[in-house]
Write a structure and sequence with these properties.
Elements: E1 4-9, H1 17-24, E2 30-33, E3 42-46, E4 49-53, E5 66-69, E6 74-75, H2 77-89, E7 98-101, E8 105-106, H3 109-122, H4 134-142, H5 157-172, H6 182-195, E9 199-201, H7 203-212, E10 217-220, H8 245-251, E11 258-266, E12 269-271, H9 284-292, E13 305-307, E14 309-310, H10 311-321, E15 325-329, E16 339-348, E17 351-353, E18 365-372, H11 389-402, E19 406-410, E20 418-420
Parallel strand pairs: 1-10, 1-11, 2-5, 2-10, 5-7, 6-8, 7-9, 11-15, 14-16, 15-19
Antiparallel strand pairs: 3-4, 12-13, 16-17, 16-18, 19-20
Helix pairs in contact: 2-6, 3-4, 3-5
Length: 421
């Protein structure tokens, strides 16, 4: 049976999905985003230029690809139209190669205000939302109130928009929160007009037809598996299913049609915003990871929290996603450490465990295995056998623990700085 391959992040997002999709796309005709919203920041680096994609799939610079924004994605017309303008100014041809699912939900200006008001009301308990209205948009989706891309071409679009807006204003009246959406609402409707030029499609039929015709499809996830609304570090999670199963609901394809599942992870761990992070470092090593790795959010600009690789969490997300191939990113950032640590278990109030537990909090202490570091510059190496022996031991230890091969190793941000095994 013909299959769709999936690529997704295995940590708390920011793993480097944009680069990986860009590297993989020569083997695929169709790239389809299946969940998340403009809180995604998929970075591409090539020919001396850098680009950050928020909604548009990461195959957009590969000539001849079809890029689909799937039904599981929530779309902000303002951010999408800005992204289109920036990419077209850089020479990308989007009109023919970008298509949007009619069933993708729209983020309204009032969704953004609801997001900000709700987060402000939480005080110290805030979850670290990017304040882009994504959570409230998904709430309206599951609450059966949402406005969808297909509604744009309906004769009742304005009526439906106003009805949902009034509902939101009623909710906002319960908050002590001042706001003015006039300017953003004007930009929003301008964005709606801009995206009308793209083809709105019944993406489930289109994607399945591609698969039937043996045309290669790569499903692109956003955020990371540890941010999954069901299996992540709840409530410090995103509002969608970030696992490989989300590709089925986010594109309308059957589980039996999933093929290779590529899992991306950094050679260490990072997290943006609030939430548990057992291996987080608060010392010079953590600061060094942040500075060398340039760990600042591609979307928010916020400094990322940094720590050693967490194998307990990684093995958990490998299991949940049915990963068939691992891809290790930012390996070069670990160069120069005398010792490299890996968490292989947790000490908790309920005893030691090698399983990712229901509750992960400040009482969850990592149990580390320490390995020899390496000092050689690996960014110019393209052959695995030429890598330092201690680095190869690090790679092979991760493989043995996860039971899955590491097929791709990134040794720098550029698409050329990649080792294929």
């Amino acid at each position: 049976m013909k299959k769709t391959d999936v690529v997704l992040g295995l940590q708390w997002g920011d793993e480097g999905k944009g680069k990986v999709v860009d590297v993989l796309t020569p083997g695929y005709k169709v790239i389809a985003r299946f969940q998340g919203g403009p809180n995604a920041g998929h970075s591409l680096h090539f020919n001396g230029e850098s680009y950050v994609l928020h909604t548009i799939p990461s195959g957009i610079f590969r000539e001849g690809t079809v890029n689909i924004i799937g039904n599981g994605v929530v779309v902000d017309p303002v951010i999408l139209s800005q992204e289109v303008d920036e990419l077209e100014a850089a020479g990308a041809n989007l009109t023919d190669c970008l298509k949007i699912s009619k069933k993708a939900h729209l983020i309204l200006p009032t969704h953004r205000i609801l997001d900000a008001a709700s987060e402000a009301a939480k005080g110290k308990a805030k979850i670290g939302s990017t304040l882009k209205g994504i959570g409230p948009a998904y709430m309206d989706k599951t609450g059966r109130n949402g406005l969808r891309v297909g509604d744009i071409i309906s004769g009742e679009f304005i009526e439906r928009y106003n009805r949902l807006k009034e509902k939101h204003l009623g909710i906002l009246s319960q908050y002590d929160y001042r706001f003015d959406i006039t300017q953003y609402e004007e930009q929003w409707f301008e964005g709606i007009e801009k995206i009308r030029r793209f083809e709105f499609i019944d993406s489930e039929h289109v994607v399945n037809k591609f698969i039937d015709d043996d045309i290669s499809v790569l499903a692109e996830g956003a955020q990371g598996a540890l941010l999954d609304v069901d299996f992540g570090t709840y409530p410090f999670v995103t509002s969608s299913n970030t696992l490989s199963a989300g590709a089925c609901t986010g594109l309308g394809i059957a589980p039996s049609r999933l093929g290779e599942v590529y899992g991306i992870f950094k050679a260490y761990c990072t997290r943006v915003g609030s939430g548990p992070f057992p291996t987080e470092l608060f010392d010079a090593d953590g600061e060094r990871l942040r500075e060398v790795g340039r760990e600042f959010g591609a979307t928010t600009g916020r400094p990322r929290r940094c720590g050693w690789l967490d194998l307990v969490a990684l093995k958990y997300t490998v299991m949940l996603n049915g990963i068939t191939s691992l891809i290790m990113m930012k390996s070069d950032v670990l160069t120069g450490f005398d010792k490299v640590k890996v968490a292989v278990a947790y000490n908790t109030p309920h005893g030691a465990t090698a399983r990712f537990p229901y509750e992960v909090d400040e009482n969850t202490e990592p149990v580390y295995m320490e390995m020899e570091g390496w000092s050689e510059d690996i960014s110019k190496i393209r052959n695995y056998e030429r890598l330092p022996e201690s680095f190869r031991r690090y790679v092979e230890f991760i493989e043995s623990e996860c039971g899955v091969p590491i097929r791709i190793i990134s040794v720098g941000p550029d698409r050329e700085e990649t080792i294929m095994r």
